[in-house]
Amino acid sequence: MAEDTLTPPRDRAAVPDRREHRARWRAEAARLAELAALTGLVVTQPLLDVLGRSPDFFLFHRASRADVLLLVALITLAPTVLFALLGALALPAGRRTRAAVHTALVGLLLAALAVQVGRHLTPLRGVPLLVVAGAAAAAGAAAHRRWRAPRRVLRVAAAGPLVFVGLFLFASPASAVVLPRGEGGAAGVAGAGAHPPVVMIVLDELPLVSLLGPDGRIDAARYPNFAALAGGSTWYRNATGVSGWTPYALPAMLTGRYPERGAAPHYSQYPDNLFTALGGLYRIKAEESITRLCPPSRCEQATTPEQGLGVLVRESGRLLGRIAAPVDSRIDPEDSYRERTAAEAGLDAAEPVPDDPKFRWDTLDDNQPARFTSFLAGLRPDARPTLHFLHLLMPHSPWAYLPSGAHYAAPDDLPNDGPGWVDLARARHLAQLGYTDRLIGETLRTLRATGLYDKALVVVTADHGVSFRRDWQGRGMDAINHAANEVAWVPTFVKEPGQRAGRVDDRNWEHVDLLPTIADETHMRVPWRMDGRSAKAAPRERAGKRFYDRPGQPVTITGGVPAALPPVPVDPLVGTRAGDVPAGGSATVANRDAFDAVDPAGGGLPALVWGTVPHDVPDGTRLAVVVNGTVGAVVPVVPPDAGGRRFAALLADDRLFAAGANRLDLYRVGDDGTLRRLTLS
User: Fold this and answer.
1) What is the pLDDT of residue 309?
2) Which CATH number characterizes residue 380's domain?
3) How far is residue 598 from each of residues 408, 595, 605, 634, 664, measured CA to CA in Å?
4) 181-185, 545-549, 628-632: which range is least confident on average?
5) 287 found inside a domain
C-alpha cells in the first residue's frame, strides 16, 4: 500500500507515443541521410572534384583559407538543407504524403545524377539525354519506394560528402591553397658583380607566330612596340615553353626545373623559385595572376581581382550549372579569369603619354588592367636591387579589347573552333594582341622616363602559345601534334643592362633556361639543381624540345624557328562604301540595340556583331556587316552553334563608329559580288 502511495501510476498510453515519436524521428533521420548521399553525388563530389583540380581558381581570386573552407561547407551542406526543407513542408500532411514527397525528391536527384553519368558514358545530349535520365530516375525512385536495399545503400553512402571533403582538403592539388605546408625556400647567394634591377613581364597565351610578319621578323606595322623591344634586346627566336598550361609552365620558368608532378602553382609546392632566389638581396614587387609562387614573407600581392566568398560562390554556381546541364559546355573555365580594369579596382591609371591619339588614353583607367596599372606605378628607381614581376593574362581569352584599347562585349559561349568560328577567334586574339602591344609600349616609355631602361635587366616573354588551326585549336596534345609551332614557340626577349643594339639568338632555348639566365645576369648563385641552361653558357646540343602536357610525362617535339602564318585574307569589300541596293531576305542581330547609343569616349564599342539568318540560307553564304555605310567585315554563314548563332563578325576599326546613334546594316553577298540588304530584327 505504501508502495502504491509513493509511486505515481504509469501512463501506459505515453509509452507507445514516445516510441512512435522516436520512430518518426528515426525515419526522418534516415530520409535526411538519403538526401545527403544523393546531393553529395550530384553536387558535392563533382564540384569539389573540379575545384580540387583547379587551384588556379582560388589563386586567381586570392581566396583566403576561411573563404575556401566556407565555400566547401556551403557546397557540402546547403543542397542537403535545401532538399530537407522541401521535404519538411510535407510533414503536416501525414505519413503517406511525406513518403510520396520524399520519393519525388529522390527521383529528382536521381535524374540529375543520371544526366551527369549519361554525359560521361553515352553520346546522348539535350532532350534525348533528359528523356533517358527521366526514365532511369523513375525506375530508381520506384525501386527506392518498394525495396529496402536501395534505401540502405543510400544511408551508408551518406558518409560520402565527408569523404569528398577530406579528399579535397588533404589529397587534391587545391589542398596547398587551404593547408599550405610552410614557406621554405632557399635564398640565393650574392656573388661578385653588379645586381641590376630586374623587370620581368610574362604574358599569357601568346604564340610567337602571331607577332611575325611575312619576312619572319616582328611585324612592326601591327606591333611597333614589340618590334622596338626586339630592336634593343636579345631575341631568343627559337624559345619554347615547356607546357601549354600555366600551372605547369610558369613554375618551370621560375624554378628552372621541368614539371615532374601535378602540384598547385603555390609557394608551398615550389618553395625554391625566382622569388626566393633573389629575395634575400632583392626587394620583390610581384603581380601574379593565377599563381602564388612568391611567399608572403617575401612579397605582398599589390593588386587583386574581385575576391571574397561572394565571387567564389557565384563562379561555383556557374560551374555547377555547366556540370549539371544535359549538353556539353563550350565555355572555357579560364575565361572567367578576366583582368579587372583600373577603374573597377578603384586605382588611378598610370600617367598617360598621348603620343598616339588613336589609343584611348583619356579612358585608360576604364580599359587598362588593374594589375598592369599597379605594376607600372611601381617602376621607379630604388636604392635596393628590385625585382619588378608581372604575369598578365594578355592576350589570353576572354578577348575583349580592340588594338586601340576600346573594349567590347561578347557572349561567353561563342565557339572557338569549327568553320568560321576559329577564324573569328584568331581575329579577336590578334586584336587583343594589338592592345597588348600598346601596354608593352607604355612599359618601355615608363622605363625610359624613370631611367630604369638602361640600368635594368628586362625580360618579356609568354608562358605558352595557342593553336588557331582548324580542327586542332587549343593547347593540348592534339594541338601540339598538329600545330606545335603555334603552341610551343613563344616570344622571348632579354635586354641586358646597358644593351642598346638588338640581336637574334637561335639557340635551342627552353623556358627552364630563364632562371639560370637571370641568375647569371644578376650575379646570384641559385642553391638548387636546375634543368635549364643559362644563355651565358654554351647552347644545348640536342635539337629536340621537351614538352609536358602532363607533369612527369615529357614528349619530344622537333622543328626550329617557326615561319610566319599565312596572313588572314581581307575581303575586298572591307572598307568600301555600300550604296543603295535592293532589299531581300532577313536576319537577326542579337545586339542590334547596342548601336542606338554608342559612347566612344566611355571606352566601349559594339565591335562584335552576332546573330542568325533563316535556315534556308546556305552555309558559306557571305554576309557584309556595314556600319554607317562602310563595310566593316565580311563573314560566312556557318552551321548554328549551341546558341543558335550562324554568324559573328569583329569590327576592329574604331573609325567605323560615331558618338550617338549608329546605323547597322547587313548585306547578303552573291556569288557574283552583288549585294542585297537584309531586313534586321
Assistant:
1) 84
2) 3.40.720.10
3) 11, 6, 7, 22, 12
4) 181-185
5) yes
